[in-house]
């Protein structure tokens, strides 16, 4: 075996080593276009695309623009940081309390303007747990908080669902945050979009900016602007966030990069406090502006919202000397002139019943009923009444400019941002599996590998379709294709469970010697070191609406021990390897490229798994199918034999035992994995019909087959050599996971 330093447990990592970020030239062009397109485009890019190097490069530019402005104080200890943030909270509380007491219409505007930040939740924790960061102590502590905020597998109990319900209780109903019209309907403005872009940027590069994640999380939690504004209790209290902060600071005392890590963490806290003070001040300015609006000005705002939809069907309607469609054809109408003309228009004159044609038209049965919401209709009715009562016009409209100057400064900073650690280069051609694996594990540092990773995933899925015809000959799987029904899927997985995994089991009568057992374990180890990674990007912000999302996210949480290091599967496999005197470097480390315990032939399976994980949107179906394969693999004969062999030689069997338990077919991951597929395809059937179900199902089963392809490599070899399935199921052996 190769002698090397190894990777000690517990993992006390407080930051990953600083290194360049590699992007392709095309990504640089696309990122420049996004940045120049304005704050809303930056926000949408970061939220809407979690699969491209362009998004990661935009994120790096955003972080450069914001983080370089931080001026952290020199503080020691979590209590000192907590006092600093508490003082900031004390200072901001009166302003937020005043905002809560605003009139109903003004509060509606305030909550809308704040909504993009409110509904980002704690997005920076979405992918802090990943192959490059596990099983770090601090990452697991953060992931534990994240799991609670996600509702512990039930999104309806989570932070975002609670906040959305609170907004609805205040009369603010908005589409999902990833919707194209969200920012417009929220009247977010550029400053809010930019603040949101910072939070999203942290969420896209959390491994590279781990100290900043810790700082952002504590500052946002402890300051609690959204909790104050919504008068809500936090799901995770400040005391728990402070405990994580204290643990992190303790860890930095033992780290060679500790001083820099603390500075970076404090810089993130400083930035969050400044941004939240800035946003609160802008909301206060917005509230003062809106509260001071005359009825004429409020009507002008309503007109401005609906003017883009006043089409040619209104050509016969005149306001003053002009047709309604002519008033709005230039896109930016003179609202003061329009409202002034409308005040004197015949439509506002009372009829015989004392009600004007205009008011009658917006009531039920009128030609404009349903165009305006209840609050708008009430404002228009009150305005008509004021005109009838003889109130004079007030057409000196003051335009809304809250946050405009601040947004302009941040926009300029973003456009000037040039991170010195960005390298533009095409990925090296012809990478061997070791180097390819290193880059996809460290994908935040090597985003330019993403196109090749997508090609690799697609190639693996295409090759696996060989088993659509010959999969029944598998020893531990059956990837033969069948038309989907829920009953057919359950029948197939039950037959695999009984016929291939459970019934063939007989205790071993002869146990291989210790060296052979260790070698066999080494053939599984690389796959175990990335356990759960296939699902680590499922259920992220904007992608947690389907029941299948939450179910698969919960499986990933189980694999990571729900934040409990003792139950974390990556911790368990490192313990197992240590019991065999295999002390490997962490898979993210360059030293892992030269490890000699795990042969090169084992990398294909792990490369395929990580490649799948990088495309949680476009390869969602395939991930569901792959998940079924790997969770069922934890059951039955192979696992029981490995436990028997490990125990005989007094080697650590905890990893095998954990999977035999948690993956059980009664209610564990194996059963849940089948249920996830059924749930997803039920949604497809409701939305798109049976033909779409079969189309989506084929992709799901490709994912299962791609798992089987690596498990049944002897079957694959025979089929390729003979051009036909073997007469009998292939014998197990030489498995590569």
List the helices and strands and how they pair.
Blueprint: E1 21-23, H1 25-36, H2 39-48, H3 53-67, H4 78-100, H5 104-118, H6 137-149, H7 159-169, H8 182-185, H9 189-204, H10 210-223, H11 225-230, H12 238-252, H13 258-291, H14 295-306, E2 318-319, E3 322-323, H15 324-328, H16 335-343, H17 357-362, H18 374-388, H19 404-416, E4 422-424, H20 433-441, H21 450-464, H22 466-470, H23 486-502, H24 514-529, H25 547-559, H26 569-579, H27 603-613, H28 620-632, H29 637-648, H30 654-662, H31 669-688, H32 690-711, H33 713-722
Parallel strand pairs: 1-4
Antiparallel strand pairs: 2-3
Helix pairs in contact: 1-3, 2-9, 3-9, 3-19, 4-13, 5-9, 5-13, 6-12, 9-19, 10-12, 10-13, 14-16, 14-18, 20-27, 21-27, 21-32, 24-26, 25-31, 28-31, 28-32, 29-30, 31-32
What is the typical, i.e. mean, pLDDT?
A: 92
Low-pLDDT residue spans: 725-737
Largest sheet: 2 strands, parallel
Strand order of the largest sheet: 1-4
How much beta, percentage-wise?
Answer: under 5%
Helicity level, as a percent range? 55-70%
| Termini gap | 20 Å
Work out the radius of gyration.
Answer: 30 Å
Total strands: 4
Alpha plus pi helix count: 33
Specify the overall morphology. globular
Task: Indicate the structural class.
Answer: mainly alpha
